[in-house]
Amino acid sequence: MNNSADLLRELRIDRSAPPPPSRRGLWIALAAVAAALVLGGIGWALFGREPAPEVRTATAVALGGGGEAASVLDASGYVVARRMATVSAKITGKVREVLIEEGQRVEEGQVMATLDPIDANAERELAAAQLGSARSQVESVRARLAQAEAEARRLSTLVAQQLVSKSQYDEAVAARDSLRAELLTAQRNARVAGDRLRIADIGVDNTVVRAPFAGVVTAKAAQPGEIVSPLATGGFTRTGIGTIVDMDSLEVEVEVGEAFIGRVKPKMPVEATLNAYPDWKIPAEVIAIIPAADRGKATVKVRVALKQKDPRIVPDMGVNVRFLEAAPAREAQAGPRGVRVPAAAIAQRDGAEVAFVVAGGEDARVERRALKLGRTLGSDREVLSGLASGDTVVLDPPPALRDGDRVRIAAAE
């Protein structure tokens, strides 16, 4: 009976025990686990991996044929005038009038200033008076000589008739010859007085300061009432009236390092860019390479002629120049060959020259490409194969950068 009672108790339903889990609850638990895994993966993707490196980029530019020039050297210099003069008076004197202003254009021979002519005029008046006196002396001697010649002729007739003594005739001849010599002396004195007058005229003309050539006044150095002198005497004495620059003689002087002077040749085409007008490309040409080096700076001076004249070009302006090399004729027939990129975009990987091309938008990745290089074009390199025009390349790629890596493009400065 006990066994039967125990069996009956085992068959009784226990209402206090929890119900077995249902299938719906199982699915909810699985979904929660999956969501946790997804969120964990996203968190690791955002915060667990290393951030993409920030890189600078540049764009590959096509090199065209047809005689297109490529830069072989970049340098900087200044605009200079080959014809420039600080105009001064030839004599020391007080400025009476200044007839120029900065920026004014003057023609050759135009009066720039005048000095006080009192002393010069006095010298001229004295020389003119001396010339008049000398001429009067000539006329007086000439008159006495005419009388003496007549007296000598009359006595010559009388002595032939033995009406006067021979000694009396000889005295008349001697007087005539003396007056002839005196006339020559008076005439020479008159010529000397005339020369002295011409010198006095030059002295008066020296009080007028004229432009030696046509140009533009860049500096006005004197004012009325100041003392000017062609010699530097110190104190408050000026040495010039003004400075004139011939704007047609402007050129560029560039100092090129000794290590790169071999790239520069006479008659070489040049592209000049003024610092004041960076978007204005001025065609130019190498005039000459000065055959002397600066020991202190290890540079050689190069003269560059500007082929375009413009009022915007003024002396002492800063200029950046690109020495160009014309493409060979065979390249002109073959058409475009390769691209040019900054030398900083080329890296060494496994003994080969490569570049990393950026592709993609926000999730930018790099693609490693093997390159075939050409000429060195200043700070750039010619790439014959491996890149196309318009490709964006990484500058100074980090040593750890690999094909397919993500990168962040630095904002332009």
From TrEMBL:
* Cellular component terms per the entry's GO annotation: efflux pump complex
Q: What is its main location?
A: other
Indicate the segments forming the CusB-like beta-barrel domain, all copies.
Answer: 252-324
Against Gene3D superfamilies, the record matches this protein to: 2.40.30.170, 2.40.420.20, 2.40.50.100, Helix hairpin bin
Spans traversing the lipid bilayer: 26-47
The subcellular location is: Cell envelope
Per UniProt, residues of the Multidrug resistance protein MdtA-like C-terminal permuted SH3 domain are: 341-396
Residues of the Multidrug resistance protein MdtA-like barrel-sandwich hybrid domain: 83-229
What GO molecular functions are on record for this protein? efflux transmembrane transporter activity
Q: Which UniProt keywords apply?
A: Coiled coil, Membrane, Transmembrane, Transmembrane helix, Transport
Where in the sequence is the signal peptide annotated? none
- Coiled-coil annotated residue ranges, if any: 131-189
Q: Which family does it belong to?
A: Belongs to the membrane fusion protein (MFP) (TC 8.A.1) family.
* Name assigned to this protein: RND family efflux transporter MFP subunit
Species annotation? Vulcaniibacterium tengchongense
